[in-house]
Amino acid sequence: AIERTFSMIKPDATKRNLTGAITKIFEENGLRVVASKRVWMARREAEAFYAEHKERPFFGELVDFMSSGPTIVQVLEGENAIAKNREIMGATNPEKADEGTIRKLFALSMGENSVHGSDAPETAAREIGFWFSETEIVG
Ligand code: CMP
After folding, report:
1. Is the whole-model pTM more than 0.95?
2. What is the pLDDT at residue 7?
3. More exposed terminus of the chain, fewer Cβ within 10 Å: N or C?
4. How large is the ipTM?
5. Distance from the CA of 98 to the center of ligand 1, in angstroms?
């Protein structure tokens, strides 16, 4: 089925001017960018967005990093978009990511891993709603 998923191009990638290169990979794999904006998130926004991880040992590091520079938040649409995007991104740990995936190509570490993508339909709905209103999504 045609799905929507939420994606972020993280500060390590925007800093290295990889916004276009990463977006091109989404497009080449059949995903369409139906919403996109560049945001420099506040610490509070990063804490709220990643609230499910607040008990994790890396939470402070994650919030510091995500509020350290610009991020591109996007909604991607396509056949099986949620799983497709996870496949294109590769494993969270770039050392474990498959050849040709975004994280294998660009990620620097587990934290500075260039992209985020929703892991399930419920998460996608929440994450899209966190950053976008319905009128900002143009299919
Ligand atoms: P993301 O998909 O954005 O969801 C949570 C993020 O936490 C994850 O990608 C990683 O970038 C980050 N993360 C997960 N594990 C670690 C870790 N051990 N150290 C630092 N960051 C981590």
Report:
1. yes
2. 99
3. N
4. 0.94
5. 17
